[in-house]
Design goal:
The chain is mostly helical and about 290 residues long. The protein has two domains: about 100 residues, no CATH class; about 180 residues, Up-down Bundle (Glutathione S-transferase Yfyf (Class Pi), Chain A, domain 2). Helices cover about 85% and strands about 0% of the residues. The chain contains seven helices and no strands. Helix 1 packs across helix 3 and helix 6 runs antiparallel to helix 7. The longest helix is centred in the middle third of the chain and has 46 residues. The N and C termini lie far apart (about 80 Å).
Length: about 290
């Protein structure tokens, strides 16, 4: 016979209240609980040792050792239970304390935050683009080696296909590294765009005596925009150079298709960053004309 849902709910609620009360009681009287838990087994052990030593190592004590051991084990188990209740209580307190702190956390950055983050964000983005350029250089060297070595295997198609399979494996690893860099590019690009927008939002207008700094920022944005255009062009050229290679073998075609998809992802990310910087130019023109 199954219990009524309301009865089960009341039982769970009552059990929860009992557990919570036990946890609160342990935390409120933690040292008293520790002393009360440790003292009886400790006194029992000392008494047994004293009787054994001072009464001539009485043999009758051996038969009682199992009862002493059970007594000690019971108190130790009780102590472990109290310790678990105390740990649960401390965990709950820390969780509630963190939850209370989160109520007051500000999600809006100030002008000092954006100013402090501008240089580090720019350096991280520049480092990411440099890593991408280095990886593309390794891919170009790989393609050159394949083009140089492949003619030596033309006398045997089986050997040539085996060589291209090894080359395709290298191409896949190259594409995997570029894919990891794409995630890094997206993250660093979003960060540098955010801090650029933030600095412009807090910047004073030209009429407020900030014209020189706005013009310097405009020049920096123009350099970044030009660099983004060059990077997109380089990626498109790299993609186009890889297309003819995929017709050599099926394995190489699979690897190159993967590589092309990753390169297209890089181009999409850079175009999104370039579009976001176009909005920065609009804000900058408004600040300069105000």
């Amino acid at each position: 016979m199954t219990p009524h849902p309301k009865s089960s709910g009341r039982i769970r609620a009552a059990a929860s209240r009992v557990v919570n009360s036990a946890i609160d009681a342990v935390l409120d009287n933690i040292w008293s609980v520790v002393i009360a838990t440790i003292t009886p087994p400790l006194m029992t052990a000392l008494t047994a040792i004293g009787v054994y030593l001072f009464l001539g190592k009485a043999s009758w004590l051996y038969a009682s050792l199992k009862y002493v051991a059970v007594f000690l084990a019971g108190f130790l188990a009780f102590g472990v239970l109290l310790l678990l209740l105390a740990l649960i209580g401390l965990y709950r307190q820390n969780r509630e304390r963190k939850r209370d702190k989160l109520k007051y956390v500000s999600t809006q950055k100030g002008y000092l935050d954006y100013r402090a983050e501008l240089m580090p964000a720019g350096k991280r983005f520049q480092q990411t683009t440099s890593e991408i350029a280095q990886e593309m250089g390794r891919g170009s060297k790989l393609a050159s080696r394949i083009a140089v070595i492949l003619p030596y295997f033309e006398f045997n198609p089986l050997w040539a296909r085996r060589f291209m399979s090894l080359g395709a494996r290298s191409y896949r690893k190259h594409a995997m590294r570029l894919e990891r860099l794409a995630k890094k590019l997206e993250k660093t690009g979003a960060a540098v765009v955010e801090v650029s927008h933030g600095n412009l939002r807090w910047a004073q207008t030209a009429s407020q005596g900030n014209k020189e700094q706005l013009l310097a920022f405009q020049q920096a944005l123009m350099v970044v925009d030009q660099s983004l255009s060059e990077s997109i062009t380089s990626l498109n050229n790299y993609r186009n150079l890889a297309i003819p290679v995929k017709n050599i073998s099926r394995d190489m075609g699979t690897a190159v298709n993967y590589l092309i998809a990753v390169v297209d992802k890089h181009v999409t990310i850079l175009e999104q960053i370039k579009s976001a910087y176009a909005e920065c130019f609009n804000v900058l023109r408004t600040k300069l004309s105000s």
